[in-house]
Amino acid sequence: xRLLPVALLLAACSGAPEAARVRLATTTxxxxxxxxxxxxxxxxxxxxxxxxxxAVGTGQALALGESGDADLLLVHARExxxxxMAAGHGRERRDVMWNDYVLLGPPGDPAQVRGLADAAEAFAxxxxxxxxxxxxGDDSGTHIAExxxxxxxxxxxxxxxxxxxxGQGMGPCLMMADEMRAYLLADRGTYLSxxxxxxxxxxxxxxxxxxxxxxxxxxxxARHRNVKAAPARMLMDYLTSPEGQRRIAEFRVGGEVLxxxxxxxx
Amino acid sequence: xxxxxxxxxxxxxxxxxxxxxxxxASGERVGVRGPNGSGKTTLLRLLAGLLQPTSGSxxxxxxxxxxxxxxxxxxxxxxxxxxxxxxxxAWQRRPRRAAAQWLDxxxxxxxxxxxASVLSGGERRRVAxxxxxxxxxxxxxxxxxxAALDEAGARxxxxxxxxxxxxxxxxxxxxxGAPIDRIVDLHRARIQA
Amino acid sequence: xxxLAEGVRxxxxxxxxxxxxxxxxxxxxxxxxVTSVTAAALIAVPYxxxxxxxxxxxxxxxxxxxxxxxxxxTVIVGLLVFALLSRRGLLGSLDMLYTKGAIVIGTTLLAFPxxxxxxxxxxxxxxxxxxxxxxxxxxxxxxxMLAALGEVRVxxxxxxxxxxxRCLTELGISVTVGGNLVRRTRTxxxxxxxxxxxxxxxxxxAPGLILVLxxxxxxxxxxxxxREARS
Lengths: 266, 193, 231
Hints:
The complex is a heterotrimer.
Chain A: H1 3-13, E1 21-27, H2 28-33, H3 35-47, E2 50-56, H4 58-67, E3 72-75, H5 78-86, E4 90-105, H6 119-129, E5 133-135, H7 141-152, E6 163-165, H8 170-180, E7 183-187, H9 188-194, E8 201-204, E9 211-219, H10 229-240, H11 242-250, E10 252-253, E11 256-257, E12 260-261
Parallel strand pairs in A: 1-2, 1-3, 5-6, 5-7
Antiparallel strand pairs in A: 3-9, 4-7, 4-8, 4-9, 4-12, 10-11
Chain B: E1 2-11, E2 14-24, E3 29-33, H1 40-47, E4 55-59, E5 67-70, H2 81-91, H3 99-105, H4 121-134, E6 139-143, H5 151-163, E7 167-172, E8 182-185, E9 190-191
Parallel strand pairs in B: 2-9, 3-7, 3-8, 5-6, 6-7
Antiparallel strand pairs in B: 1-2, 1-4
Helix pairs in contact in B: 2-3, 2-4, 3-4
Chain C: H1 2-16, H2 20-54, H3 59-70, H4 74-85, H5 100-124, H6 128-136, H7 140-151, H8 153-169, H9 172-178, H10 188-197, H11 201-230
């Protein structure tokens, strides 16, 4: 990132009058994890660029990119990201990090899935035992990952009495699963921040299918004139730089690692 | 026997009525005379049980339904004159069919199918009095019943009141021709002993 | 503008195609709203009218509390009901959280102060003769109150429709205590919110159009009623 001070000098020489600003659209679960409050301040201090974080659902974040209302996207929905790029809305896309999902459930574990290595098998046991399962139901990254697992064991159980599609964010769904003593697929970060209030256990974790890769996408400035491409690129560079990646790896919640960088990690 | 002693009715700081002493025997026909604003309406509402004294005592009042007040500006509900009376009869669980005859007795039989909105002030009052008579009260309190009545109307009303067997209290600025036996004067909201 | 027009076009198409999930949301919205506003009215209207007609001791304080109740944000009501019905709450054993019943409880609490305040206002504005007439004719306090309410029934119908509109369009309660479960507790407003978060503008506009239609219907009804009363 030796280019950074040079770029800053150039920007200063070009006489950028007002403080530069990047609008970063990301998902609510990413924002709720607290990662950005750890990751962004060093960047903002050094460059003087203000990062405006807009945390919405995955679909809405991508929509903001399409309409040019966001300059940079940080999302975790690989298929939809690729469709976004294929449709020409993004100038560039890079992998940046991954976190993981965990299958939560009541301590009593009626479907007996505790400790299974294969998440899909756990889903199959939940279906066959008809145990209560709460789904995000909102086309979020988490919901997409959940659907992918159902597809491996016979399809999404839509309409079944025990399958409750909530259409809400991760936090409310965690509370719902807690109240209803149901199973739920959740991202580890949000789970950790709610853990103290919940009566749910982590029953399945570590399966590769439970990995959740993040992509950072630069919105194509050619399509929308008011996209702040230069500062957005600087932010993207920071996130994928060795320094940024190290900072991601250093982030802890309750002493636990949440996000795994793509550089130098596995 | 209704007995009032040392009674005062105040609304906030204003004294609307003061009665040192007043007695009304059962079956008596009393006129309460006084100019406008002298407290006649307040006295009638007190007697009818719609108002309570701020201080002093009043005993022997028949309860609402047994002692009936007809307001100076009576309220009639939606529907015809006959329906208004039938409703009152229903409230007291009496047969509704009797409604029409009471209108005849106050000389308002021709008004039975008219609704309140088309009645004049005097006509409304006659309907209201017929309504009060219909429930057969022990006491009847009338607030200015003869105002805005023509000769014929006044005559049939007087006849109906003469035929009324219970206690009668009539309040008005003048009581000429009213079917009463004695007069109580209200001076500036006061009745002396 | 083109964006909006396209959304409207798509929304109309969705409505005409009779999407089952959307119409189930209509059913949930209407069922919960009618149940709660009616339940609230049955108690709130006589209560408010009683305060306005008979002015018992403490009436002023109660009217004040009702007015405060009217201005409490829906999210707070949602929070209160959630705390009550949650497993750890007082009524947790009823297992009512995330059901239509929970929504009805919440929206009834929402409608109550509004209906009572409007009933109080209408009753207090009546001439004293209106309630004194049945009283003096022996109708008793309760029947006299009903007779007086009959005189302001148009205002009461308008009050019902106002409460109806408020409950139909609220979001904070139905999502918090209902859970937005598809085909169970998902209402029209919460469908809109969900579709917006998915970035699907047209799918958000379809239930939005239905809501607007229902609101127009309620407004038209109120208008009709008040014109009838004036004639």
